[in-house]
Amino acid sequence: MVSNSIAVIAPTPAGDRLAQRLLDGLTDSVLWTKPRPDASPFAQTYEGPLSDLVATLWEQQDQLVFVLAVGAVVRLIAPFLTHKSQDPGIVVVDETGSLVLSLCGGHLGGADDLTRRIAALLGVSPVITSASAALDLPAVDTLGLPYGWRRGQGDWLAVAAAIAHQDPVAVTQTCGWDLWQTALPEGHPFQFVPSETAAAHLWISDRQPPPRSPQVCWHPRTLWVGVGCERGVSAALLESSIRQVLQAQGLAWEAIAGVASLDLKQDEQGLLELARQWDWAMQFFPADQLATQPVPNPSTVVADAVGTPSVAEAAAIAVGVTLIVEKQVFRDPSGACTVAIARAAQEYTPRPGKLYLIGTGPGALSQITPAAQAALADCDAIVGYQLYIDLIRPLLRPTQVIDARPITQEVQRAEAAIALARRGLTVAVVSSGDCGIYGMAGLVLECLVAQGWNGQTPAVEVCPGITALQALAARVGAPLMHDFCAISLSDLLTPWPVIEQRLTAAAQADFVVALYNPRSRTRLQGIQTAVDIFRQARPKDTPVAIARSLYRDGETIHLTTLEDMDVDQIDMLTVVLIGNQSTQRHGDRLVTPRGYGVRSSDT
Do the Cβ atoms of 559 and 585 come closer than 8 Å? Predict the structure, then answer.
């Protein structure tokens, strides 16, 4: 998702208290409230009518969240509404936190996505009334945003209406990522074969579309403009020259990724001004690097002047790979420039990408933290083991890309998630329990470091979860009140002698011990060896808890002792908790005293 600036407006004391719960989960957000002694210390305050504040924030913020009655919000924003392509997204939260409504700007303003995030933070269902959401289809007017595409011309309302009515929509995609197609539900209205009888047309290309109606255009940013110019050339000449070249070739202005040139031009004001105006990327190359590029029109004059026989063509090829328009020369009173166009195989995106490493807890949706649920709502793609994704399926949107892989493909999952994030997507990597305890967090970070990660791009946020030992402890009482540890019995990544050494040390040190991955169809002896080690170090009546599928359908919990425990009832979905010398059983509860010296009622 695209990061936006968010203003949370909560005029009343009740609204202020509720809004404070949202701030940690909403980056780039600012809380506004009335000045009063109990106001949040993190809030901005305003005097005067609320309408004056709304008038100011309307021009400054991407999204406005009102903790207020819906009717009051409607009356407040009505005078400021102009067009959905310009207005901020508007979300309304009632003061009890039981309703979160996407009121205006659901698609282009991002209100639908923000509503999902806020609802996840509050643990309620979002209220989204857009037609595309009801059909589990991507909104056509935001379809290309996750991929960095730019909107072209078209009748967006008519095409959206055709999709809402499930009329056939012909899709032509000549470039850009086709990942969006993998998330389409069965029975969708999109047709990926040429059709002149379709009710509407969706054109995805770096070229201009043929004349058809109704039609809308998305332009993946695959075009790189190589520029050579005399010192002091104007931005107006550069822009008019590029437009002439594109128009003559039927290429779209919106498909420009950026400009490339000689490093001597890094301070060329006309070029810098043009790139800033259109938010283009800029790449500059030294003359010796440009000189190595094979070009169709080398010039000895240029080589004598700047040390390379080509600037425009060579620079375009250096970044765009395939030259599709050879250099052309343009002049005006400010000077002269040359323009060449190259096409990249992969579109450019200005989005930095983000990885959420999420622990989804033991299994029940109620055990997933609000922060983790909000992170899931924020994502374009979800990567994980098939079982874990199935468990959280009710929290996912049908338009999110799902990459579910078998249990033995942990490295492939990590690398796939990183690849998606490097292309600008916001990606969740889900693990059961806590992602940093025998989960995917460490592996993803290892893979990033191995790939030369700079620690910033893509961004990484770790969302903790309730791990199995915590879940089991909660189910059986309070067995973790003193020192404890966890040991995995899987020898796929750790040699068995090392595991056995750790078991012996933990048993002798009198830790309460949780055994993860205790047994599989091919690993049958490890759990028996572990039990034998503990039987040698601890009393045979030491309490033991054996739990399977905690917080999931088919949950079972069995309390026993070291002497009586039966390893045949243990498998990979089981976690085993072995008490220490102080752990006591009271009915169906286990307690490990902390040492406060509580007296019995009999003394």
Answer: yes
The residue length of the chain stands at: 603
Instruction: Quickly count: other Cβ atoms within 10 Å of residue 494's Cβ.
Output: 13
- 381, 375, 463, 148 alpha-carbon torsion, rounded to 10°: 50
Residue 287 corresponds to which tokens in the numbers above?
Answer: 């003359």
Six token digits for residue 162: 């055709």
Within a 10 A sphere around the Cβ of 267, how many other Cβ atoms?
8
Residue 28 clears pLDDT 70, i.e. is over it: yes
Determine if the peptide bond prior to 497 is cis (ω within 30°): no
Tally of CA atoms within 13 A in the half-sphere of 403 that contains its CB = 22
Q: What percent of the chain clears pLDDT 90, i.e. is strictly above it?
A: 82
Q: Quote the distance between the C-alpha of residue 429 and its chain's center.
A: 9
CA distance 4 to 63: 7
Q: Shortest CA distance to 198 belongs to which of 169, 159, 173, 171?
A: 169
CA dihedral 20, 22, 25, 30 (to 10 degrees): -70
List b or e across 120-149, with b for residues whose CB sees 16 or more CB atoms inside 10 angstroms.
Answer: bbbebebebebebbebebbbbbbbbbbbbb
**166 touches 160 (CB < 8 A):** no
**How far apart are alpha carbons 122 and 183 in whole angstroms?**
27
pLDDT category of residue 2 using cuts at 50, 70 and 90: very low
pLDDT digits (tens, 9 = 90+) for 322-361: 999 999 999 999 999 999 999 999 999 999 999 999 999 9
3-state helix, strand, coil in the chain (%, to 5): 35, 25, 40
One-character DSSP codes across 23-84: HTTSTTEEEEE---TTS-TT-EE--S-HHHHHHHHHHH-SEEEEES-HHHHHHHHGGG---T
3-state secondary structure 121-143: HHCCCEECCCHHHHCCCCCCCCC
Pairing mode, if any, of strands 169-173 and 150-154?
A: unpaired
DSSP 500-552: HHHHHHHHHTT-EEEEES---SS--SHHHHHHHHHHHHS-TT-EEEEEESTTS
209 preceded by cis ω (within 30°)?
Answer: no
Distance, CA of 261 to CA of 313 (rounded, Å): 9
Helix (H, G, I), strand (E, B) or coil at 166: coil
Residue 302 contacts residue 323 (beta carbons within 8 Å): no
CB-based contact 88:105 (threshold 8 Å): yes
Describe the strand order of the beta sheet including 401-405 as a list of residue ranges: 401-405, 381-385, 426-431, 354-359, 459-463
Bridge partners, residue 244, by sequence? none
Closest CA to 546 of 528, 533, 559: 559
Which residue type does 208 have? Q
Q: End-to-end distance of the chain based on CA atoms, in angstroms? A: 63
Distance CA 54, CA 83 (A): 17
The letter for the amino acid at 262 is L
- What global pTM score does this model have? 0.87
Is the pLDDT at 41 greater than 90? The verdict is: no
Q: How far is CA 291 from the centre of its chain?
A: 40
Token look-up 């973790």 returns 480
